[in-house]
Write a structure and sequence with these properties.
The protein is an alpha+beta fold and 385 residues long. The protein is built from 9 helices and 13 strands. The strands form 2 sheets. Strands 2-1-3-4-5-6-7-8 form an 8-stranded mixed sheet, with helices on both faces. Strand 9, helix 6 and strand 10 form a beta-alpha-beta unit. Helix 6 packs across helix 9. It binds 6-O-phosphono-alpha-D-fructofuranose (P6P). The site of 6-O-phosphono-alpha-D-fructofuranose has 10 residues, from helix 7. It catalyses: beta-D-fructose 1,6-bisphosphate + H2O = beta-D-fructose 6-phosphate + phosphate. One of its GO terms (molecular function) is metal ion binding.
Length: 385
């Protein structure tokens, strides 16, 4: 039962989630989580918009801080990751989180970085009822921040309660349950089970969304019954509903890919984009190109204006660049809930079970007619996936 956003004048995201939890008592914990994420997004919005005033632009530790992706970490990558981890952990509803900035999923009950969440007896409190797994990219497109180009936070929430994952006390001498064993005795069978709780397909997501830090600050959310987009009203410090029940246009006239990689794309994609450019596609319209190099901004525009966004496989990156668990799958959930499609080329992204936390996947998503048309080029070629 998801009350229509418009039923409540003066509603905010907080009030909307409150009404949902009231109508669906089983979602009380999810309400807590979304509340913590929106608070984190407000904090990140402040950090990003004031970055040049406070001087937190540039690279972490003056450069040289490399994340698990092998990318140089921006100061804001580190800060925003901590903001989200703290926000999620203090809900007491988290079991495990996975982040672009963390080498392996982190057991938030033991995470050294933010202290132990425990009761007065010092025992880790594991909220069996509402334990969730959160996956997120705390500041996607962070390389754009120094130039003031839009960035975003992407998040997905899985329900972990069904997983065979009991988080015991951290073994003596080990940092956490999931990092590759430093000492042999840190190997622990339990991490495979808890890892499984993290490596779930997009079709198992119970919620996903993004925050977009741009000319406005947006909070997009799906709980599996449509997409609602809220806009931060700085006058009241609340996200207010501005795009209820988002429906991606059936077709757009925009394609959004990094054409610098064009020569590395496979033949079906090159032919498809050339036909769009020449007005030789199904619509007969000549498409235009829009690409800001920040997935959240490009997907947001695609949701509202239609067309197709992609970071496809190419000869340099067999699986493209975007990560399945915390970028492609949460965005695919949103796009599908808005009536769009999200494929790797031929395969539905939501069906893919991640084999590792940072696994990359080709992404082509957007208006249903555009994505279906693109797929016909792959169907016509054998051997492309
Ligand atoms: P390129 C940002 O680094 C990001 O992960 C996405 O936000 C964005 O869509 C993509 O990479 C841009 O990559 O290679 O086109 O700069």
């Amino acid at each position: 039962v998801f009350p229509e956003v418009c039923e409540y004048t003066g509603i905010t995201l907080t009030r909307y989630m409150c009404e949902i939890a009231r109508a669906n008592p089983g979602l009380n914990d999810l309400e807590t989580l979304i509340s913590s994420i929106q608070t984190a997004c407000k904090t990140i919005n402040s950090l990003v918009t004031r970055a040049h005033i406070t001087g937190i632009v540039g690279y972490a530790d003056g450069g040289g801080s490399i994340n698990v992706q092998g990318e140089e970490q921006k100061t804001l990558d580190v800060l925003t990751n901590d903001v989200l981890k703290r926000a999620l952990r203090f809900t007491g509803k988290m079991g495990v989180i996975a982040s672009e900035e963390e080498e392996a999923p982190v057991d938030v009950l033991e995470d050294e970085g933010v202290g132990q969440y425990s009761d007065e007896a010092g025992d880790a409190i594991i909220d069996e009822a509402g334990r969730y797994t959160a996956v997120f990219d705390p500041l996607d497109g962070s390389s754009n921040v120094d130039a003031g180009i839009p960035t975003g936070t992407i998040f997905g929430i899985f329900d972990m309660s069904a997983a065979e994952c009991v988080l015991p006390e951290v073994q003596e001498g080990c940092d956490d349950l999931y990092s590759p064993a430093v000492e042999d005795d840190c190997e622990g069978a339990v991490s495979e089970e808890c890892m499984a709780a993290t490596l779930q397909p997009g079709s198992s997501l119970v919620a996903s969304g993004y925050c977009l830090y741009s000319s406005s600050t947006f909070f997009a959310l799906t709980l599996g019954a449509g997409v609602q987009i809220f806009t931060l009203d700085p006058h009241i410090g609340e996200f207010v509903p501005t795009h209820p029940n988002v429906a991606v246009p059936q077709r757009g006239a925009i394609y959004s890919l990094n054409e610098a990689n064009r020569k590395a794309w496979d033949a079906p994609l090159r032919t498809y984009i050339e036909d769009l450019q020449d007005g030789n596609g199904e619509s007969g319209e000549r498409y235009t190109a829009r690409y800001i190099g920040s997935m959240v901004g490009d997907v947001h525009r695609t949701l509202l204006y239609g067309g197709i966004f992609g970071y496809p496989a190419d000869s340099k990156n067999a699986n493209g660049k975007l990560r399945l668990l915390y970028e492609a799958a949460p965005m695919a959930f949103l796009v599908e809930q808005a009536g769009g499609l999200a494929l790797t080329g031929k395969t539905r992204i939501m069906d893919l079970v991640p084999q590792s936390v940072h696994q990359r996947v080709p992404v082509l998503l957007g208006s249903p007619d555009d994505v279906r048309e693109m797929r016909k080029y792959y169907d016509a070629f054998t051997g492309s996936k």
